[in-house]
């Protein structure tokens, strides 16, 4: 039943084992508690003191009423060493202060080690698939379900989160730590519980757009098959207000284009380090467009899938109907084109959030961006 001595905080001594050279503690309450005026003692501490009164009575009955240490030179035993004080455990008389301190210490330990009931975990699946008639085969996707999905009957808003080039549907799970970040944001209240869907755009052909020859129609798959499948299979809110799209790099460009093509489907869009090509020459090389393609076909394709060209052609009212969030690192090689898109949006008076932070084209940058994206789209879901 010893009370720990907290150096510099609680000048208390262990109970029941005390050297005669150590002055006994006479006060019924430690200095830290004596310093609190009685009227200002909080209710929780008064409850601890009341419990201490009851415990004191019980312990007095068990341990006796003596509050002293006997000293002896043990002259009558062979083991005695004259002149050396011996310590003996004497019957203990606990005080209210001691008992209150015991309870207070236990309370601090309990509070420090307790896990909040609200700190729950969602579930992630990174190898799900669906059959696509448009693309002719199985298409994989990853999925995050919020912590209360399995225990509730409610429907949830949905965020379509697109990966970058050279990744697949597992990118945001493995490198982006979407599970941990989404759980934390939901548990601390900065994000609303939502379903996060991460499609694969790395199988067959790379990218989120239809091909210029019409043989690979990924965008048609996304809107005509994938979204309807997800929103039929899982409990999502089907209204536009509860749907958002975001992505990084190639997926940032994809999310930009998708929101410009279908502002009727997305309440919010959050392109991160968005990849898009500002000139026709760079665009042609990047998408490896056959030089035999005629100029008119190429121009139509460029106008459809180049972000800067779309910002000149899409209705300003349609752009204003979407909540925009852009984020780019100051050392990112895509900084200039993202800055051009930001300037165009400003000139068009389209409200948007534009963030430039220290960093480059890296997963550490996008992991740091994701909590803000979740908070941003959540604000749109709550409108």
Strand and helix map with partners:
Blueprint: H1 31-34, H2 43-63, H3 96-113, E1 123-132, E2 137-145, E3 158-162, H4 171-174, H5 178-187, E4 195-199, H6 218-233, E5 243-248, H7 250-261, E6 268-272, H8 280-286, H9 295-305, H10 307-313, H11 316-320, E7 323-329, H12 335-347, E8 352-357, H13 363-381
Parallel strand pairs: 3-4, 3-5, 5-6, 6-7, 7-8
Antiparallel strand pairs: 1-2, 2-4
Shape call:
globular
Radius of gyration: 34 Å
Structural class: alpha/beta
The count of strands amounts to 8
**Main beta-sheet annotation:** 8 strands, mixed
Low-confidence region ranges: 1-45, 61-90
Helix content: 25-40%
Query: Mean pLDDT, rounded to whole units?
Result: 81
Number of helical elements: 13
Give the DSSP E fraction (strand runs of 2 or more residues). 5-15%
Query: How are strands sequenced across the largest beta sheet?
Result: 1-2-4-3-5-6-7-8
SSE series? HHHEEEHHEHEHEHHHHEHEH
Termini separation comes to 57 Å
